[in-house]
Amino acid sequence: MSRRIPVLIVAGFLGAGKTTLLNRLLRTRNLRIGVVVNDFGAVNIDAMLVAGQVDAMVSLGNGCVCCAVDVSELDDLFDRLAHPRQKIDVIVVEASGLAEPRNLIRMVVNSDNPRIRYGGLVELVDAEHFPESSAQHPELVTHLRMADLVVLNKADRVEPAELERLRSEISELVGQVPVYPTSHGRIDPGLLFDVPTRDPQQPRVGEQLSFDELLHDEPMPHEHGEHCHDGGCDHRHLHDAYDSVSFTSDTDLNPRELIALLEDPPSGLFRAKGVLGFAVPDDRRKFVLHMVGRHITLEPTAWSRHEPRVSTLVLIGSGLDEHDIRARLDATVHRADDPLDDHALLPVWRYVPADDALVGEG
Fold first, then answer.
1. pLDDT tens, position by position, for the chain (362 residues)?
2. Listed residue (185, 199, 223) closest to 25, CA to CA
3. How many degrees, rounded to 5, is the angle at CA 318 between CA 315 and CA 320?
4. d(Cα 14, Cα 16) in Å, to the nearest integer?
5. Model pTM score
6. Which residues pair with residue 228 across a beta bridge?
7. Which of 75, 223, 228, 278 could pair with 255 as two cysteines, CB 3.0-4.6 Å apart?
């Protein structure tokens, strides 16, 4: 799989819980997160909240990154965070509550940095105050429609019936985008990005322990929704577990059918990843897929000499219909009675970065 580092944008109206979610991610054991925090205030409170828990952080205290005229400034930050010596697994951009997500997405997608890729826009919504906030700031609805994942936070502060009504209302606004209800910014990192497997006992030669590693056994403060008694704490998790569907085929796929599925993704899908072989005669390439929301990237490379030519896909989201997805994936397997030629790969090339177009030839 590609070692490009995903850049995840976390946005939402003021007070929706972005910093809380970020701090929870920072406490994920064995995960190295690079953070870009921006704030309009003279004192960058958000940066102070995450400082000391992050392996590499660049704080922008003099304005919102999305307002920068010179995109190279953000590229410089990505260069620092994505440098191999940092050993970063994911970069999280915590947008100011007043940030325009569209500009941030463009900055990441249009970056020339070969070490990063777009990791999605996560838009946080305050379940308790969304009706008032959306009425006062109609642009919030526009932001939701740009999201790859909507996190309906503070779900413990509304009645179950109201929560379901809100979830249905937001789902109507965002269509196939998953809406994930939770409280206190709790979200499984595995929904957002791949969490690497590392030996926690393995020392890093020449490196100090990060604050995250030093503090990983320290419990989070008690919060609403956690009831403690003599026997310990009872944690009530209001969110749904994320879903994943795996698919494997030792028969090559039909590129047209596969692209059609990705362009009309299953409801609730947040991201997909995989290695694909297409049934085009004499084409020896494999294509590494990374998909987040509506953003699709296919990177061609060569199969290694002893690697079996097997296509594998993993689809990740919330509320996925596994039966429907498997039926649609089965339909992408190439049928012998449907001969393909080089033109069949044209839909694939739409999603191949220009610099990768000639990779893996022969």
1. 457 899 999 998 878 999 899 888 888 877 889 888 866 555 666 777 777 677 777 776 666 656 544 556 778 888 888 988 888 999 998 887 656 788 888 888 888 888 999 999 999 999 999 888 888 888 888 889 999 999 999 999 999 999 999 999 999 999 999 999 999 999 999 999 998 876 555 544 333 333 334 333 334 433 434 433 343 433 344 445 789 999 999 999 999 999 999 999 999 999 999 999 999 988 889 999 999 999 999 999 999 888 999 999 999 999 899 999 999 999 999 998 888 887 999 999 999 987 665 554 44
2. 185
3. 60
4. 6
5. 0.83
6. 233
7. 278
